[in-house]
Automatic annotation (TrEMBL):
PANTHER family recorded: APRATAXIN, APRATAXIN-RELATED
GO-annotated biological processes: single strand break repair
PROSITE patterns reported in the protein's UniProt record: MACRO
Taxonomic superkingdom: Eukaryota
Organismal lineage: Eukaryota, Viridiplantae, Streptophyta, Embryophyta, Tracheophyta
Protein name according to UniProt: Macro domain-containing protein
Length: 617
């Protein structure tokens, strides 16, 4: 692609394309990518393109000769998108840390080199779609260990993909194989091309299915496992790799769903958030699928009966794709994501607000818990469309064990919290299990460092009371608790000021928190943190979305409850410096401004104890 100087397009499978028009752009972009943590991400989309109709990138070869990729960067050599399908690797070869996640196009349009505005405009700010593409990565079922004929298997894969691809809406399917020159990949690719299957919806990818994101830059929320009938680790190939990569969490979660699997069937297993596959790769579900076995050395061999084999392989793919559709379906039923409201380190998969499992309505909970059921292509799911998925999740069917303690998922307010959004709640309820993370534990509150600090110093003071999810649950009887939280927060701010007297702290609550369990933010006003990445992060601490602890206490004293309104509008407000109130077009600009702004804080903040400063000497 670079050779031909063609411009990459988002619909080729890139998550993010950044057009650089001069070396400043390149530098700024590399900086933005280098600042990312291993699980961080930038918004998807196309940034900095001046002429969207242009077909070729001027001067790219000249640029490539001139610029060498930084030594600590580079794409994974063994994870490349297949050639006839979207090419993630070409551009990745010249990009930095971000290659693992995004595609960065470094180009110089020689005549257009004027300013770096466009790049800066789009680089981190989130004015383009931030939607993730839900992706199922699946290995070819039965063709390796079970020795199913590649040619026949590829026909079935393409047939099944074609059947399902139009039901996917925004999602996509990716056939993955570890080896370059994989026969099954090339057969499928050729056949899919012939059938004109939309390459945005389906493509092939060479890479390790357990490292697609960290090594290949391909984000796949769901991966399929070519499982054995016992649903146990072991054997070789994909099954062993997935169980090893996912850790014990997958074994346990699988056991909760099903103990065995029949050929042609699949079982969807939501991956616990402590699984490394979840935290490192962003995989939220594993779908175990069992295909037909043609290998006489393995159990239940079909003795070369391809009639039966083909029928079971079709069933297996149907079960797999039906399972995937059920995940999509439960996601599409989600209420508007809090991540859209607050976008706290989205696809920073550690962040609960990005995890759709944290945004299930009560009725979704059922789907969530049921999505671990066993899917089969049988009388129960003929046609295998969305409706049949609904049937599948009906309690009367023969599915895996449904688990989930609803009471734990629901708070006292109408909001329902998923597993990840409960981290603070669990810490508050069981501090003994989190000793290493805690700075202080008292009867009513405890203190810890924010895991994704948005400033140099960012602590959380957690209420330890059951039934207090957020400000909305706070009433007159909690006044004493709020005062304790404030006093403890203040004590820690003062302690930190003792270490660095140049700091300034602010104590407050988010109007609409992303995490369950009332928590007070104690945050230094430098906002010097790589975790602070977008407008919503900024505005959540620098608009009325952030309710100062002192004001909340006053309101509870006077009215018995805190005022909670306009939370949405606050987060989309323009970016303004919290000191001089100057406006800035994007986060990089704002950050570079605040790093030097010495203007006094606004009066409103300086009054009534809103800010905590070192005592004047
Ligand atoms: P809020 O939007 O007020 O709910 O903020 C929740 C805060 O919790 C965010 O600043 C997150 O960075 C932080 N956070 C998320 N998970 C954890 C965790 N496991 N431990 C500590 N802080 C966390």
């Amino acid at each position: 692609m670079l050779q031909k100087k063609e411009l990459p397009k988002l619909n080729e499978g890139f998550a993010r394309i950044v057009f650089c028009h001069n070396e400043n752009d390149v530098e700024a972009t590399i900086k933005a990518y280098t600042a990312l943590g291993p699980l961080d991400t930038l918004s998807n989309g196309c940034f900095g393109q001046k002429n969207p109709d242009a077909k070729i990138q001027l001067g790219i070869m000249k640029f490539l000769k001139k610029v060498e990729a930084p030594s600590n960067v580079g794409s994974s050599s063994d994870s490349v998108q297949d050639s006839a399908y979207p090419q993630a690797s070409d551009a990745n070869n010249i990009c930095c840390k971000g290659t693992a996640k995004e595609s960065l196009l470094l180009g110089v349009a020689s005549k257009e080199v004027k300013e770096s505005e466009n790049l800066a405009k789009g680089s981190v700010d989130d004015d383009v779609s931030v939607d993730e593409i839900t992706t199922l990565a699946f290995p070819s079922i039965s063709t390796a260990d079970f020795q199913f004929n590649n040619e026949t298997a590829s026909d079935i894969i393409v047939e099944k993909v074609e059947e399902f691809v139009n039901k996917l809406e925004n999602a996509r399917l990716v056939l993955v194989d570890l080896t370059h020159g994989s026969k099954i990949l090339s057969l499928v690719r050729t056949k899919a091309e012939k059938r004109n299957i939309d390459s945005k919806k389906f493509f092939t990818f060479v890479g390790n299915i357990t490292q697609l994101y960290s090594q290949g830059g391909l984000r796949c929320n769901v991966i399929a496992n070519a499982a054995n009938w016992r649903l146990k680790p072991g054997g070789g190939g994909v099954n062993a790799a997935i169980f090893t990569a996912a850790g014990l969490a997958l074994e346990t979660a699988t056991k909760e769903r099903a103990n065995s699997l029949l050929p042609g069937h699949a079982v969807v297993v939501p991956l616990p958030s402590d699984s490394p596959l979840y935290t490192r790769e962003g995989v939220s579900h594993v779908i175990h699928v069992l295909g037909p076995n043609m290998n006489p050395q393995r159990p239940n061999s079909l003795n070369n009966d391809y009639n039966k084999g083909c029928s079971i392989l079709r069933e297996a793919y149907t079960s797999l794709f039906t399972g995937f559709l059920s995940i999509l379906r439960s996601r599409s039923k989600l209420p508007r994501r809090i991540s859209e409201k607050l976008a706290l380190t989205p696809l920073d998969l550690k962040d609960p607000s990005l995890d759709p499992r944290n945004h299930l309505t009560n009725s979704d909970q059922k789907i969530k818990r049921d999505d671990g059921c066993v899917y089969e292509r049988s009388k129960k799911c003929k046609g295998a469309n969305d409706e049949t998925v609904a049937d599948i999740s009906a309690p009367s069917s023969t599915y895996g064990k449904v688990t989930g303690d609803k009471s734990k998922l629901e708070g006292p307010t109408s909001k329902t919290w998923g597993s990840w959004a409960q981290a603070l709640y669990h810490i508050a309820m069981h501090p003994e299990k989190h000793k290493d993370e805690l700075l202080e534990v008292l009867d009513d509150v405890l203190v810890l460092n924010d895991l994704y600090p948005k400033a140099c110093k960012h602590l959380l003071v957690l209420a330890r009371h059951e039934g207090l999810d957020g400000l909305v649950d706070v009433h007159q009887e909690h006044l004493q608790l709020l005062m304790t939280m404030h006093a403890v927060g203040l004590k820690w701010a003062e302690k930190l000021l003792h270490e660095d007297s140049s700091m300034v702290f602010r104590l407050g609550y988010h109007l609409a928190p992303s995490m369950r369990q009332l928590h007070l933010h104690v945050i230094s006003q430098d906002f010097n943190s790589n975790h602070l990445k977008n407008k919503k992060h900024w505005n959540s601490f620098n608009t009325a979305f952030f309710r100062d602890s002192v004001d909340v206490i006053e309101e509870i004293k006077n009215h018995g409850k805190a005022t909670i309104k306009d939370e949405d509008s606050q987060l989309s407000m323009e970016l303004r410096c919290h000191r001089c109130r100057s406006a800035h077009p994007n986060i990089p600009r704002l950050k570079s401004h605040i790093s030097i702004c010495q203007a006094p804080f606004p009066h409103a903040l300086l009054e009534n104890g809103h800010l905590v400063l070192a005592p004047k000497t």
